[in-house]
Amino acid sequence: MHTVRGEGVWLYDESGRRYLDAYNNVASIGHCHPRVVQAIAEQAARLNTHTRYLQEGILDYAESLLGTFPDALQQVMFTCTGSEANDLALRIARHYTGGTGVIITRFAYHGVTGDISSLSPSLGASIQLPAHARTVRAPDAYRLGAEQAGKLFAEDVRGAIADLRASGIKPAALLIDGIFASDGIFADPQGCIAEAVAIAHAEGLLYIADEVQCGFARTGAHMWGFQRHGVQPDLVSLGKPMGNGQPIAGVVVRPEVLEPFGRSMRYFNTFGGNPVSCAAGQAVLDVIHDEGLQQRSTQIGAYLLGELRKLSERHELIGDVRGAGMFLGVELVTDRKMKTPAAEQTRRVVNGMRERGVLISAAGPLENILKIRPLLTFQSEHADLLLQALDEVLLELA
Ligand code: PMP
What we know:
The chain is built from 12 helices and 16 strands. It is α/β, with parallel strands linked by helices. The longest helix has 22 residues, at about 295-315. InterPro entries: Aminotrans_3, Aminotrans_3_PPA_site, PyrdxlP-dep_Trfase, PyrdxlP-dep_Trfase_major, PyrdxlP-dep_Trfase_small.
């Protein structure tokens, strides 16, 4: 696809054809949202430079952002990308704990810096896990069972900690994406990561919540993905929808965790938290609030989930429908009993949807899970367009 323009929930290609964007977690509050565009333009006309000098917009934005977090998370450092945010979060966690060990999920994605790419097995088979990393199974309620998913996740984390110690490596952090986007989109049962987080804390590890995918109201009922699970992170990494396309990301952290790091070394990120990016970030928060997008994410997300489940009654290929808010996964299988991944069919569904003018994608190690991540501004008529296209494509495949 060659895209040339975006407006609201629509993307336009070079021929002027429009596509319903159900796969965008960057322009999450709508393409080219007028309030974001205005905020960027006004700030760009006033001042845009590095972050060496004080600038009120940065402080105002930091306070607005921190106002959306639980009280314990009181400080933020800005970066340009989610990868940098995870990289920084890990450095802070290692400095605080004096350890190096990191626990991630088997098919995690956390970014592209040297350190973080080595902790992103989903980048490809040539990623060599470093000696200080251990992987655990994501809480896959579909394949492991809803009661077992959280228990096994906790057991795996406990085992990984013991294994690191047995190798003479002090564990520093449990780093997890709150919706396990690359592992296959696992949102439920709510609270399924709580036991693992409790074990990590009891063992002296810090919990880094990677909210690059599931933050900013994406999962509906909460602003932050970790809140669905009733857990308290020590560090939270943010990115993607933070500036609705303007590069801005960051780490939100407990002050006592940051303090020793801040005291012992400098951190200067030339563009991280620059005035224009912060203006965009502030506009995004304002729009989420003023347009009730968290509520919309909950309502339309629940509607989509329900309707997708109805579709599964008519289409044998659908093995499981899951997700939270506007982050949905539809796992396709050729055999419901055996849960045989239907990778080829998934690719055809994604392409068939695009041919019908609806953009989605696929996730999971075998890419047999439809990844549906509509803009938070979807109305029910947009949800219906998506559902109708999916129904047609599945019928055609059958
Ligand atoms: N963490 C997660 C969960 C992500 O999905 C991504 C980006 N896909 C990142 C981190 C890295 O963010 P960025 O591409 O902005 O570096």
